[in-house]
C-alpha cells in the first residue's frame, strides 16, 4: 500500500468552488460519499424520533383505557410515525445512504453520473423533511390520516394534511432524482470490461430499485397533488359527493406504495448477497439467478397493488388475479433464499457481526414474507385485514428485513466508511439483543391480530392486555439494543483500530482501495475480466491496489 | 458518439420540415373529423386516439430522434407504455365491473 | 465542466486491447440517457392523469361527452398549431447550433419562446372565459350540474394547469439557455443541454396532442 494521506474527509469537490468552512464543505459537497453520509445523518436522526414516538404509543397501549395520550393524539402519533419511517427513513433508506456511498465504488466509477443532481436531491430531501417538521405546529397539528392519506378523510380533516402531502411529494422527488442518477451511473460508468453480469449483486439490487423509484414514484406524486388540489380547490376527483371515487385514490396510492416495499427490500437483498459470499469465502451460488430475480421482483411487484384493496369493494375477478400475482412474488424471493443457503452449505463460515446480522434477518424476514403470503390469500385477508396481524407482518418484513439488513450493511461497510473497526464481540451482542427485542415486540401481535385486535386503535378490550404488555416490554429491549448498537459503532469510529483496505478479505472493487476512500475513489482502473466473487481455497483470487498515487493524480 | 467529431458534418433540417407538414395535416384532420362526420362518442374517440397516436409516433421518431437511437431507448419507452397499459387495464376493468354490479343492484 | 479536448483515459485488457474509461464529467450519452429517464417519470405523471380521466370517462361517459361541448374549440385548435410550430422552431434551433450557426439558433429559440408565450396567453383567456361562465371547481353553477361534468372540469383544470406549468418551466429553461449560449457555455461543441430541452419541449407537445382531443373533441 502506498503512503496515502488524504481521504475524502480531508478534501472534496464542492458545487460553488472552495469553502474554508468545514460545514459548508459538507453541505455543498458533490462527492457521492459525503452525500451518502449526510443522508444517513438526517435519516437516523428522524429514525430516532420515530422510534421514540413508537415507544410512546406502546406505552399508551400498556393497559386498556387512556394513559398518556388522547385518541386524537394517538392518531397523529401513528401518522407521524408512519410518515417519518416510510417517507423520511426507509424509502431513501439503503439507496441514498449505503447505495450512494458504495455503488460507484463497486462498479469502479469516480462518482455518480450527475454529482450536482445528487447533491440537489439531498437538498430537496432536506426541504421535504423541514416541511414535514413544520407541519407539526400550526393549527390543529400534524396530519391524523395515517401515512396512506386515504380519501375522503384526508380531504376533510382539519389537520395540516396539505403540508404533509407536500413534504411527501418532495421526498418522492428526491428519491426519483437518486434513481435517475443510479440508472445513468450503472449504464454509463461501469469500469471497462464489467458487463451487467459482472456487477456485484448489491449494484443489481440498487439498479432494480431505481427502476421502481422512477416508474412508480411519479404516480404517487401526482396522486398527492390531486389530493392537495382537492383540498384547496375542490376539483372533486376524490370526493364522492361530486362523483369522485375514493377507491381510485387507493388504487393510485398502492400502485406506488406496494412497489415501494420492493424498492426498500431489493437493495437489502443486495446487501445480503454481498455479505454471504464474503463470510463464507466462496463464490456466491447462482449469481445469475440472484441478479435476475431482483429484476423479476421489481417487475411482478408492480402488478400486485390490488391486494391492499381486497376489502374495498373490489370485484372478485380482479381480487383473484391480484392474489395470484402476489403469490408469484414469492418465487423470485425464494430463489434468492435458496441461493444464499446453497452458498453457505459446506462453507467454513466466519461468524463476524455482519454475518450474524444477515443470518438473523433471514429468519425474521422469512416470517415477514410468509405471513405476507397468508395475507395475500383473499379469504384469509378479509378476516385479517386491518388487524395487528398486518402490522406485525409488515414490521417483520420492513423492520426485520430492510432495516436489519441495513444494519448488516452498515456493519459490513463501516470499516470502509470510517477507516476503523468496531468491537466485533460487542457488535454481535447488539445484534442478538436486537433480534430478541424485535421478536418479543412483534410476535405477540400476530396472535393478537388473529384474535381480532384491530390496528390504529388507541384502546383495546381487556383480553388483549397480555399481548400488549409483552409487546411493550419487547419495545424496551428493542430500544435498548438500538442505543447499544449505536454506542458500539460510535466507539468504533472514534477509538477503533485502523481497519486497513480490506478487513473482510472481500473481493469487490470497493475493498481494493484505501479506507476511507480518497476523493475520486480510484487511481488506476483495472480491466474487469473476472466475476465479482472469486474465491479459491478461502482466499480472494485477485488482489489489487487501486489507490490514487501521489504522483499520478487523475484529471 | 463524442462531441468532437461532429463539427465537420452538416445537419439538415429537411426531415423536420417534412414531418412538420405531416403533423399539420394530421392536426387538421383531428379538428375537422368531429365537425364533418357526426358519430357516436366511441368511434369519434377511437379515430381521435388513432390520429393522436400517429402524431406522437412521428414526434417521437423524428423530432426526438428515437428512429436512429440505440435500442435501449426504444425498449425504455415501450416498457413504460406497457406498464401504463397494464395499470390502466387492471384499474378500469375493476371499476367497470363494480359499476355494472352497482347498476344491476339498483335496477332490480 | 471538463474540457472536451482532454485525453480519454485508457485501460488495457489481457490481450492488450484498449478500452476507454467514461469520464463522468463529460459524458454526452450519459446526459442524454439521464434526461430520457427523467422524461419517463414525466410520462408516468401524465399517464396517471390520463388513467384518472379514463377511469371517470368509463363511469360518466354521457356527462363527459356533454361537458366537452362547452369547450372552446377555436382557441384550443389555434393553440394546437401554436405548439406544433414551436416544436419545429425548437428542433431547428438545435440543428443550427450543431451546424455552428449560433445566431440562427438564438433566433429560433426566441421564436419558440414567443410562441410559448402566445400559447399561455390564449390558454389564460380560455380559462377566464370558462371561469366567467361558471365552469370552475366548486362554483355553485358547476355544482348544480351532473357529477361527470364536475369531474370533467376538475380534470380539465388539473391537466391543462399542469401542462401550463410545464410550458412556463420550459420558457424559463430556454431563457437560461440563451444566457449560456451568449457566454459560449453551450455551443456546437457542447449542445446536449439544448438538445435535452428540445426533447422536453417535444414531450410537452405530445401531452397536448392527447389533451386536446380528449377534452375538446369527444362530443
Description of the structure:
The complex is a heterotrimer of chains A (555), B (108) and C (219). Chain A is an all-alpha fold and 555 residues long. Chain A has helices spanning 22-27, 32-60, 71-90, 93-107, 115-134, 153-156, 161-188, 201-233, 246-280, 287-301, 316-344, 353-376, 378-384, 388-418, 424-450, 465-495, and strands spanning 535-536, 539-540. The model of chain A has no long low-confidence stretch (mean pLDDT 90). Chain B is flat, with a radius of gyration of 21 Å. Chain C has 219 residues and is mostly helical. Chain C has a single domain (26-216), classed as Cytochrome c oxidase, subunit III, four-helix bundle (Four Helix Bundle (Hemerythrin (Met), subunit A), Up-down Bundle), CATH 1.20.120.80. Chain C is 74% helix and 4% strand. Chain C has seven helices and two strands; from the N terminus they run ββααααααα. Chain C has helices at 28-59, 61-68, 73-98, 102-132, 140-143, 147-183, 192-216; strands at residues 9-12, 18-21. The interface between B and C is large, with 47 and 52 residues.
Secondary structure elements and their pairing?
The complex is a heterotrimer of chains A (555), B (108) and C (219).
Chain A: H1 22-27, H2 32-60, H3 71-90, H4 93-107, H5 115-134, H6 153-156, H7 161-188, H8 201-233, H9 246-280, H10 287-301, H11 316-344, H12 353-376, H13 378-384, H14 388-418, H15 424-450, H16 465-495, E1 535-536, E2 539-540
Antiparallel strand pairs in A: 1-2
Helix pairs in contact in A: 2-3, 2-4, 2-5, 2-16, 4-7, 4-8, 4-14, 5-7, 7-8, 8-9, 8-10, 9-10, 9-11, 9-14, 10-11, 11-12, 12-14, 12-15, 14-15, 15-16
Chain B: H1 14-36, H2 41-63, H3 71-107
Helix pairs in contact in B: 1-2
Chain C: E1 9-12, E2 18-21, H1 28-59, H2 61-68, H3 73-98, H4 102-132, H5 140-143, H6 147-183, H7 192-216
Antiparallel strand pairs in C: 1-2
Helix pairs in contact in C: 1-2, 1-6, 1-7, 2-6, 3-4, 3-7, 4-6, 6-7
Amino acid at each position: 500500500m502506498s503512503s496515502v494521506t488524504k481521504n475524502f474527509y480531508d478534501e472534496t469537490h464542492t458545487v460553488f468552488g472552495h469553502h474554508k468552512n468545514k460545514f459548508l464543505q459538507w453541505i455543498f459537497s458533490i462527492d457521492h460519499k459525503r452525500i451518502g453520509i449526510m443522508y444517513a445523518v438526517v435519516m437516523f436522526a428522524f429514525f430516532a424520533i420515530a422510534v421514540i414516538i413508537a415507544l410512546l404509543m406502546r406505552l399508551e397501549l400498556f393497559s386498556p383505557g387512556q394513559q398518556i395520550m388522547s385518541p386524537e393524539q394517538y392518531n397523529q402519533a401513528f401518522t407521524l410515525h408512519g410518515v417519518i419511517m416510510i417517507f423520511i427513513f426507509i424509502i431513501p433508506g439503503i439507496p441514498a445512504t449505503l447505495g450512494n456511498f458504495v455503488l460507484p465504488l463497486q462498479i469502479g466509477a469516480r462518482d455518480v453520473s450527475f454529482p450536482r443532481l445528487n447533491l440537489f436531491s439531498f437538498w430537496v430531501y432536506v426541504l421535504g423533511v423541514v416541511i414535514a417538521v413544520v407541519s407539526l405546529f400550526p393549527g390543529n397539528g400534524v396530519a391524523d390520516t395515517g401515512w396512506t392519506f386515504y380519501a375522503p378523510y384526508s380531504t376533510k380533516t382539519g389537520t395540516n394534511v396539505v403540508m404533509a402531502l407536500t413534504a411527501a411529494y418532495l421526498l418522492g422527488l428526491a428519491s426519483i432524482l437518486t434513481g435517475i442518477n443510479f440508472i445513468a451511473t450503472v449504464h454509463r460508468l461501469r469500469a471497462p470490461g464489467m458487463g451487467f453480469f459482472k456487477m456485484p449483486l448489491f449494484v443489481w439490487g440498487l439498479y432494480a430499485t431505481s427502476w421502481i423509484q422512477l416508474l412508480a414514484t411519479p404516480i404517487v406524486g401526482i396522486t398527492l397533488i390531486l389530493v392537495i388540489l382537492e383540498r384547496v380547490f375542490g376539483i372533486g376527483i376524490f370526493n364522492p359527493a361530486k362523483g369522485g371515487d375514493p377507491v381510485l385514490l387507493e388504487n393510485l396510492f398502492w400502485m406506488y406504495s406496494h412497489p415501494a416495499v420492493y424498492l426498500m427490500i431489493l437493495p437489502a437483498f443486495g446487501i445480503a448477497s454481498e455479505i454471504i459470499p464474503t463470510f463464507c469465502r466462496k463464490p456466491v451460488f447462482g449469481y445469475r439467478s440472484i441478479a435476475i430475480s431482483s429484476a423479476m421482483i421489481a417487475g411482478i411487484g408492480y402488478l400486485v397493488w390490488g391486494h391492499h384493496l381486497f376489502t374495498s369493494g373490489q370485484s372478485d375477478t380482479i381480487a383473484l388475479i391480484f392474489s395470484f400475482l402476489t403469490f408469484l412474488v414469492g418465487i423470485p424471493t425464494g430463489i434468492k433464499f435458496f441461493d444464499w443457503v446453497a452458498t453457505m452449505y459446506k462453507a467454513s463460515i466466519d461468524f463476524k457481526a455482519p454475518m450474524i446480522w444477515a443470518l438473523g434477518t433471514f429468519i425474521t424476514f422469512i416470517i415477514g414474507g410468509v405471513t405476507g403470503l397468508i395475507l395475500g390469500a383473499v379469504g384469509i385477508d378479509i378476516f385479517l385485514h386491518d388487524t395487528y396481524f398486518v402490522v406485525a407482518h409488515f414490521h417483520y418484513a420492513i423492520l426485520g428485513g430492510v432495516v436489519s439488513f441495513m444494519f448488516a450493511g452498515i456493519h459490513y461497510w463501516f470499516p470502509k466508511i470510517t477507516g476503523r473497526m468496531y468491537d466485533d464481540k460487542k457488535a454481535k451482542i447488539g445484534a442478538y439483543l436486537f433480534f430478541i427485542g424485535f421478536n418479543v415486540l412483534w410476535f405477540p401481535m400476530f396472535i393478537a391480530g388473529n384474535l381480532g385486535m384491530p390496528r390504529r386503535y388507541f384502546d383495546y378490550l381487556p383480553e388483549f392486555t397480555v399481548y400488549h404488555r409483552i409487546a411493550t416490554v419487547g419495545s424496551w429491549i428493542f430500544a435498548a439494543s438500538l442505543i447499544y448498537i449505536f454506542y458500539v459503532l460510535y466507539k468504533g469510529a472514534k477509538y477503533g483500530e485502523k481497519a486497513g483496505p480490506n478487513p473482510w478479505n472481500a473481493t469487490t472493487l470497493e475493498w481494493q482501495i484505501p479506507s476511507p476512500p480518497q476523493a475520486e475513489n480510484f487511481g488506476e482502473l483495472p480491466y474487469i475480466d473476472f466475476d465479482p466473487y472469486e474465491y479459491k481455497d478461502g482466499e480472494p483470487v485477485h488482489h489489487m491496489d487501486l489507490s490514487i498515487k501521489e504522483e499520478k493524480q487523475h484529471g | 458518439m463524442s462531441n468532437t467529431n461532429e463539427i465537420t458534418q452538416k445537419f439538415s433540417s429537411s426531415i423536420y420540415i417534412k414531418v412538420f407538414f405531416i403533423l399539420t395535416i394530421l392536426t387538421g384532420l383531428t379538428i375537422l373529423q368531429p365537425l364533418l362526420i357526426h358519430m357516436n362518442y366511441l368511434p369519434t374517440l377511437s379515430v381521435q386516439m388513432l390520429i393522436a397516436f400517429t402524431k406522437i409516433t412521428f414526434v417521437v421518431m423524428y423530432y426526438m430522434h428515437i428512429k436512429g437511437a440505440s435500442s435501449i431507448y426504444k425498449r425504455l419507452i415501450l416498457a413504460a407504455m406497457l406498464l401504463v397499459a397494464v395499470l390502466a387495464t387492471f384499474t378500469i376493468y375493476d371499476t367497470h365491473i363494480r359499476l355494472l354490479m352497482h347498476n344491476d343492484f339498483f335496477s332490480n | 465542466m471538463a474540457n472536451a479536448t482532454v485525453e480519454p483515459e485508457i485501460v488495457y485488457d489481457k490481450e492488450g486491447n484498449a478500452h476507454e474509461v467514461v469520464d463522468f464529467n463529460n459524458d454526452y450519452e450519459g446526459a442524454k440517457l439521464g434526461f430520457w429517464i427523467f422524461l419517463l417519470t414525466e410520462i408516468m405523471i401524465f399517464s396517471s392523469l390520463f388513467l384518472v380521466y379514463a377511469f371517470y370517462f368509463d363511469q360518466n361517459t354521457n356527462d363527459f361527452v356533454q361537458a366537452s361541448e362547452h369547450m372552446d374549440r377555436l382557441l384550443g385548435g389555434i393553440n394546437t398549431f401554436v405548439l406544433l410550430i414551436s416544436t419545429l422552431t425548437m428542433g431547428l434551433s438545435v440543428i443550427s447550433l450543431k451546424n455552428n450557426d449560433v445566431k440562427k439558433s438564438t433566433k429560433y429559440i426566441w421564436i419558440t419562446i414567443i410562441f410559448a408565450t402566445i400559447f399561455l396567453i390564449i390558454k389564460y383567456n380560455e380559462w377566464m372565459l370558462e371561469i366567467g361562465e361558471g365552469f370552475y371547481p366548486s362554483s355553485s353553477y358547476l355544482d348544480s350540474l351532473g357529477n361527470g361534468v364536475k369531474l370533467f372540469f376538475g380534470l380539465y383544470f388539473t391537466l391543462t394547469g399542469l401542462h401550463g406549468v410545464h410550458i412556463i418551466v420550459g420558457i424559463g429553461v430556454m431563457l437560461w439557455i440563451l444566457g449560456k449560449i451568449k457566454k459560449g457555455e453551450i455551443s456546437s461543441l457542447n449542445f446536449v443541454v439544448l438538445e435535452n430541452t428540445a426533447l422536453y419541449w417535444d414531450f410537452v407537445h405530445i401531452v397536448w396532442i392527447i389533451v386536446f382531443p380528449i377534452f375538446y373533441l369527444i362530443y
